From TrEMBL:
InterPro entries: Methyltransf_25 (IPR041698), SAM-dependent_MTases_sf (IPR029063). This is Class I SAM-dependent methyltransferase. GO terms for molecular function: methyltransferase activity. It holds the Pfam family Methyltransf_25. GO terms for biological process: methylation. Keywords: Methyltransferase, Transferase. CDD domains: AdoMet_MTases.
Amino acid sequence: MLYKSYDYLAEVYDELMDNVPYDIWSDFIIHILKENQIENGLIADLGCGTGAMTEILAEHGYDMIGIDNASSMLEIATDKKFEKDLDILYLLQDIREVELYGSVQAIISICDTLNYILEKEELKRVFQLVEKYLDPGGLFFFDFNTVYKYETVIGDRVIAENREDISFIWENTYDKEEGINCYELTLFVKEEEMLYNKYEEIHYQRGYTLDEIKELIEDAGLEFTEAFEDYQRNPVKKKSERICVIARKAAKKEEIK
């Protein structure tokens, strides 16, 4: 059966993402936040999924808002927050149409969430909403997969993994002219002894260059601050696969020194 993106994947998402170094990523993000005098306060997580990073930041004393357009992901995130007794607000919203009650000190978006925005004008709209809801001087931290990664590393490649209770086949097709990577995900999930059910989903992502991202940030009224390679403070290279970006909203004039 063919499912919409994350309809069924949500059920096994955390298991499949167990190779993501959330501890390393969160340490890096928290360091960036504290480096910018954000020790606590309100933070929004765009494309929070099942809440893995949202939970970690909440456990470090931040007041978290998790935002995602997949109800199946948020259902799992909500169950986990109650299990861990965490005070997190989850909102079912498309990040292109975010509505918050007020401003926040920082906004994050990780794990190539923004690559799911397939049109530049729509990504600019996301950045405009970030600018709208950030406090003056507020911080925006996000990552994205590069064109190089889709063209050279995963494009037109099949990735498969066989585990005890779940296996997957991940078929990538990259359209260089459109800049869109399509990946068809087939899951085989063990339901009972010797019985596996098959699930299929299709996902689309767009690769961006750092120059494109900078332009969209500035067009949205944000200030580009810094970019580096994959949760390390290494310079961006031509062969960088994931880039982290820091941008900010301009401070009020009286706050500018």
